[in-house]
Amino acid sequence: MTCWIYWAKLYDTRFQARCLATRMQEDWWVYGYDSPAEVEVFQSKKGRYGVRYVWRRS
Asked: Is residue 17 within 8 Å of 25, Cβ to Cβ?
């Protein structure tokens, strides 16, 4: 079973959320962190956009 972790902030545009998702996938190695296994942009019921991700299983 996959448990999604939700980023705490919602964004007004899909572009803003996608920028965060891309940074999570590509830039975390700069700071010595492992990147999430899967990152996804979703739309809330009120029309705002958020990011959720899943870590790799060890």
From this structure: no
Any idea what DSSP says for residue 11?
A: B
What's at 28, amino acid-wise? W
Exposed/middle/buried for residue 18 (C-beta within 10 Å: 0-12, 13-18, 19+): middle
Position 31: which residue type? Y
The rounded mean pLDDT for the chain is 89
The answer to whether the beta carbons of residues 35 and 28 sit under 8 Å apart is: yes
Q: Which two tokens stand for residue 27?
A: 């830039």
Which residues of the chain carry a pLDDT beneath 50? none
